[in-house]
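Hi R.,

Here's the chain you asked about this morning:
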Amino acid sequence: MPRKVLIAPNAFKGTFSALKVCEAISKAINPAFEFKALPLSDGGDGFVDVIHYLIPELPVLATEVTGPITNQRKVHARWIWDEGNRIAYIESAKACGMSLLEGPLNPMEATSYGLGELIAAAIGKGAEDIYVGLGGTACTDGGVGVMQALGWQFLDQANRQIGPGGGRLIEIHRVLPGPKIKVNLNLMTDVNNHLLGDNGAAPVFGPQKGANPAQVFELEKGLSNLWLHIYKIFKMNIDFPGAGAGGGIPAAMALTDCASVGSGFELIADLGDLEELIAWADIVVTGEGKFDAQSTMGKAPGQVVNLSRAQGKRVALFAGSIEQKVGDVNIELTKFGGDLEQAAVALANQL
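And the predicted structure, written out as tokens:
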């Protein structure tokens, strides 16, 4: 009886999309094997592309928005529109992602404003539910850019709207509400980091966005100032689990009263019938660019491992580097030198 292989990887951050990894492994597998592919996303880069793979009949739209740096070129952000169900699927990385930067990383000036414009476009289209993939952002602005694009004002002591970026959050002195939003904003992520503290947006994710230790300190002060004024004015605590995702985007978005944080992985797993596919398979292949301790704490590959082991399935872990042992995961490809096709062949030979 031919072996049945499920290929269910996450994106290899900064190198290969989940779809590209699925394609490479599919081509390398023994022709006698049966296989099915389910590219995964936890809300970061590739979220919209995975949704399109799963629901190809839905149209892909594009909206011109401010990129991660306001004085650089605008970007055309792709998103998916489900007219019949009034659902929009959008992705922060396509509006304010690190991959969109024209120059070096700029953690102090990068803004989430373009994501707010994308949300506004979906609302203008008539969306009742918006699923926002969070991750891969260049910004650590606590979601202030999003809210400015939606009509909120974050004013300094001279009653001027503060400029873009996490470096300007320290200037916030007043916050004025914008128009009421009547839509369900579902913020999809794979992390439960708080906004502030050692496990918060600035110290954990700031260095990935190019922040040096002094800038991490300044970003933390700015986010704390944002928290303080929102608490003083609205009696709302925006330092909650998940608030640190995407550079703190869920924090300020809590002001809408219609935003909630959810699991990007669970959305994709549900749309793609992941558990049924695992039940079908003899071997489950999963992975990402770097499999480490964070991978086992809610990220997509770690959850695939857990679901597969619960059904007694053999698991093959495919990654650029592996720093975390996972029980009986029994195939480890560690450093494949960037040649995805050769690594896929090496994996296939061990299945």
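The chain has twelve helices and 15 strands.

Let me know if you need anything else.
M.
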